[in-house]
Amino acid sequence: MSEPCIAAMDGGGTKTLLVIARQDSTIVEIRRGAGSNPFDQPLWRSVLENLLGNLPSSLEAVSFGLAGYGESETLRSRQDEAVNSLISVPFFIKNDVDMACTGAFAGKSGILLLSGTGSMAWGTDGHKRQCRVGGWGALFGDEGSAFWIGRKALSLLTEILDGRNTADANFLAPFCEGAGLPKNPELCGSALLEWYASLTHERSSVAALARIVSGMAESGNLTAQHLMTDAADELAAHIKAIRTRFAGITMPWSYAGGTLQSPFLRNAIARQCGAPIKPILPPAGGGLLSAARLAGWNCEPEWIDRLAHNLHESGLSS
């Protein structure tokens, strides 16, 4: 490829994307890999190496949004070292939620609420002032995330199975059906433990259960709706905390991550925080915008609109 191009990497806990775009905003290639969060993915460096191999010779800049970046000095140094050894063109690295925030507001002020495998909120005034809330990890944080919802659902299931909870029995059958477990309580317990024993990556597997709970809530299951409402309360607290820190500045909120594709969850948050703004660009688009600016390209609103359209056509919607 001889035409100038840029690239952006969106490295999350469950999956990692590398998107390459030309100067006219057309998408050249999308590469996909496993999760690359160094906190719980021991092969994260191999994921980066595989995705960054054989890059176009006309590449002018790369933007990285990496899960966990900046949260541990030790891991940050390792991520810096890995990228430095793999990239020879101008680049910069930021946290993946910071990159998603850039995409959602095209570099202007706002709060990006992320709920995927983990959860975090990122606020910016559109200039130099930023702050983050949450993102403390699955052990003692990530409230309202897919993992948090999945673990709550499993805990509720065990309470139903052994008789500690008789009020939410309506949760058992549809949840077990979605999870591939027996609906019969006498068979479900042993099958659940077999599932647990077979897990190779607990966090991702538990997080995947949030889709089942979300679907049940959308279908009217009251127990699932209560669980999703609890998640909404936790996520709304992230937004409120950032708005308190940016008192006097209008701070709209937007969203990213698979969990927040649930209309039920977004609506429950909106009842406390107002309606969200649809992201202008998906997280990878925020990375491409940053890389384009690093390369000195003209990133007028029309260019951003074309980029959003091309990303949507490539299957990367906001």
Automatic annotation (TrEMBL):
<dbReference type="InterPro" id="IPR052519">
    <property type="entry name" value="Euk-type_GlcNAc_Kinase"/>
</dbReference>
<feature type="domain" description="ATPase BadF/BadG/BcrA/BcrD type">
    <location>
        <begin position="10"/>
        <end position="284"/>
    </location>
</feature>
<dbReference type="InterPro" id="IPR002731">
    <property type="entry name" value="ATPase_BadF"/>
</dbReference>
<keyword id="KW-0808">Transferase</keyword>
<keyword id="KW-0418">Kinase</keyword>
<dbReference type="GO" id="GO:0016301">
    <property type="term" value="F:kinase activity"/>
</dbReference>
<protein>
    <submittedName>
        <fullName>N-acetylglucosamine kinase</fullName>
    </submittedName>
</protein>
<dbReference type="Pfam" id="PF01869">
    <property type="entry name" value="BcrAD_BadFG"/>
</dbReference>
<dbReference type="InterPro" id="IPR043129">
    <property type="entry name" value="ATPase_NBD"/>
</dbReference>
